[in-house]
Amino acid sequence: MEMIELSIDNKVLRVKKGTTILKAARKVGIEIPTLCHMELHNMNIENKPGSCRVCVVEVDGRRNLAPACITEVTPGMVVNTHTVRVLNARKTIVELLISDHPYDCLVCAKSGNCDLQSIAHKFGIRRVHFKGEKSTYRKDTSPSIIRDVDKCIMCRRCEMMCNEVQTVGALSAVNRGFISVVAPAFEMNLEQSSCTYCGQCVSVCPTGALTEVDSTNKVLLALMDKSKTVIVQTAPSVRAALGEEFGLPAGTLVTGKMVAALRRIGFKYVFDTDFAADLTIMEEGTELLGRLKAHLAGESNAKLPILTSCCPGWVNFMEHNFPDLLHIPSTAKSPQQMFGAIAKTYFADLIGVKRQDLVVVSVMPCLAKKYECQRDEFKVDGNPDVDFSISTRELADLIKQSNIDFLNLPDEDFDTPLGESTGASVIFGNTGGVIEAACRTAYELYTGKKLDVIEFESLRGKEGIRSAKLDFDGLTLNIGIAHGLSNARKLLDDVRAGKSDYHAIEIMACVGGCIAGGGQPYHHGDSKILRQRRNAIYREDKNKTIRKSHENPYIIQLYKDFLGQPCGQKSHELLHTVYYDKSREEITIHHD
Amino acid sequence: MVPKLICDDEMADVHAPATSDKDSLKVTIKLSVEKINAINRICASYDNDPEELISVLHETQNTLGYLPAEVQEIIAHNLKISAAHVYGVVTFYSYFTMVPKGDHPISVCMGTACYVRGAEKILDELKKELNINIGETTPDQRFSISCLRCVGACGLAPVMMVGEKVYGRVSPNDVRKILEEYREDNCEECKPTQQL
Fold first, then answer.
1. Which residues of chain B neighbour A185 with C-beta distances below 8 Å?
2. In terms of CATH architecture, what is A216-575?
């Protein structure tokens, strides 16, 4: 590998050919400020359109300033990163960006988490010298995501996520010059577009241009309504990230404090989505075994591979892009919806509360869950199984609004019966986790033997597409795993083309799985945070005494008292769903 | 009286409820079989290569006269790219238009030479005569106005084009006379340029 010697701020260094000034500078501890640039290491995600120009540096012998994020080093290059010329240019650039930005930081949803705000602060900008026209564009609200492109700085991170990482193709830069915006095709609303609500655009947006629909006030109103019993469920990934909102290091598990906080906010019962994840495994695992046995018996209509259906962003993606394959995903509802269905039937009866007086709130690392809980098929006479879904960030806001000293809370336990869960359900938060949980149960149910080693290391990892062969007592099970929708698309294209020999495939819309969901605390491009959350999830699994879903005593009780058996009549009514063809194009020929 | 919670997040309340109604998401493409076939042929002639998007758009616009949303949807489908991407390209280049041009598209050169020699006055005169703005088409579909930058005839500035015909050293007084040539009764080769 050819090495290149250069100097940055009088420090001489040697770096590989092709390195940018930005990355070379980092090697010697010089942090050049960036705004549009974002890199998520280990994920092959890098956005460097070189559009914001905040990273400009002075290069000896070069007439203009060079954008450090896209300028590669050359032999003998002499770079200075904080000359008067550079400092002035940066300030002017940021002032120009701000001059076409609403001055509403005090009431902006992104305040405190905005990269533009922090860079303005960092550069010590105290006034804006430029006054001129401001962009105005209509606000666009969908069930999950709000677009306020007046706050867009055209960094194109959302576009990169939507098109390259997710291949959803809902967003593109349209028009030209001052009037250009990032928008769906034909500037339709997000809701009419192919958007899956995965929320990855929100998680990388540096400003308040893309934010989630905030339901915290609706939750507060329900909590204050004396006629309602309000209960809450929390997804596995929330406990591995919530602490970040209170200054704890990434990867700190705050399960006990989270439960205590929810109780203090006023939820009558604090339950766990993990319970429903165990239930999902019972249903999905049984379905897998059923289809597998049919396949082994040579039945021609055996539908394999079976696809996991826990992830609502992925379900949306499938409905939009693979309407011809809607028969292969598991019909099992997601844990969020299974929880809602059980809460508003079994649990409502148990405590003697009428369905319409029971309010189910879910705390999710996800924005697509907001859309999912509003789907018509998850309502009974207009009353949704899950009333409101809030993100991890919204929960942090609720805790702060309720005057709770989170860091000094005691650890408390979930309520029973819908709060008991196993290690299998916790790992739903990581890529590969759902299928590992399913295999822990499917193996024991299929072979009748106890698993020696509970961890299926071959299913873990961070590669976008992974495959593993598992030995089920002589039967080889081919497992596929994809996370990130571009990877899901590749696996599904193979299935469509008949080139796939997988028996089961797990798909998660977000790269890394739910721990990196669109509703999690902002990572600001730091992929170490995601790794630490991932490790925390596996730690939580290890700490559990019961680590296989079918051994959850409350799940066993639920089947005995209420559901009967997995994939039985009652399960089908309450725990399974259908999918719709939502492909956008419909060519109806018109004779004109 | 029960005190009310102040909720200022108006945005949170205005969104339409989610729907599983699949029909609301459909884009209905209303085009004749001939037009759909023509678009498919153009895409196929470029091997449905997404890298050839601009060429495909050029040729499609030359054939159909404009690039409405439906046409962009079909191109996106054939080239396996998102409709948002196609729309992004169409709206980036001023050459592409989503409204049908008139039978006689008029272009006024706004290059430096033409501009300093009074192109803007010609444009004003055209707008007044036809009662439309730049980028628009007359209700009878006969004329549309657009601007371009330099046709390479700077010696004849100011220059305007009607269809493929170039008019040089145009004065605002000439505008009405030029348009007369294309009025229905006078126009010799008057047949729609849109073949399909």
1. 69, 72-73, 76, 82-84, 86-87
2. 3-Layer(aba) Sandwich (3.40)
Residue with tokens 């290149």: A4
When pLDDT is averaged across residues A183-205 and rounded to a whole number, the result is 95
CA count, 13 A, side-chain hemisphere, A533: 29
ipTM of the complex: 0.90
Q: How many CB atoms lie within 10 A of CB B35?
A: 21
Contact assessment for residue A35 and residue A119, using Cβ atoms and an 8 Å cutoff: yes
- Comparing alpha-carbon positions, the chain B residue that sits nearest to A220 is B5
**Residue B5 and residue A218: Cα distance in Å, rounded?**
10
Six-digit token pair at A569? 């009549």
pLDDT above 50: residue A133: yes
Which residues of chain A does CATH 3.30.70.20 include?
Answer: 98-212
| Other CB atoms within 10 A of residue A325 CB | 15
| Neighbour-count burial of B22, counting CB atoms closer than 10 A to its CB (0-12 exposed, 13-18 middle, 19+ buried) | middle
Question: What's the CA gap between A255 and A448, in Å, rounded?
Answer: 33
Q: What is the mean pLDDT of residues A31-37?
A: 95
Instruction: Give me the pLDDT at residue A301, please.
Output: 78
Strands (E), A113-187: 140-141, 145-147, 172-174, 181-183
CA A245 remoteness from chain centre: 16
Domain extent listing, chain B: 30-92, 104-181
pTM above 0.95, yes or no: no
Query: Which residues of A belong to the active site?
Result: 284, 287, 310, 330, 369, 372, 377, 514
The CATH architecture that domain A98-212 belongs to is: 2-Layer Sandwich (3.30)
- Per residue in A209-244, pLDDT tens? 999 999 999 999 999 999 999 999 999 999 999 999
Fold of the domain spanning B104-181: Glutaredoxin (3.40.30)
Inter-chain residue contact B31 with A221, CB threshold 8 Å: no
Q: In the CATH hierarchy, which fold is given to the domain comprising A3-82? A: Ubiquitin-like (UB roll) (3.10.20)
Mean pLDDT throughout A175-192?
92
Q: Could you tell me which residues of chain B have a Cβ less than 8 Å from any Cβ in chain A? A: 5, 7, 9, 11-12, 14-22, 24-33, 36, 69, 72-74, 76-77, 81-88, 91-94
With a pLDDT cut of 70, the percent of chain A lying above it is: 98
Query: Which of these, A125, A68, A62, lies nearest to A93 by C-alpha position?
Result: A125
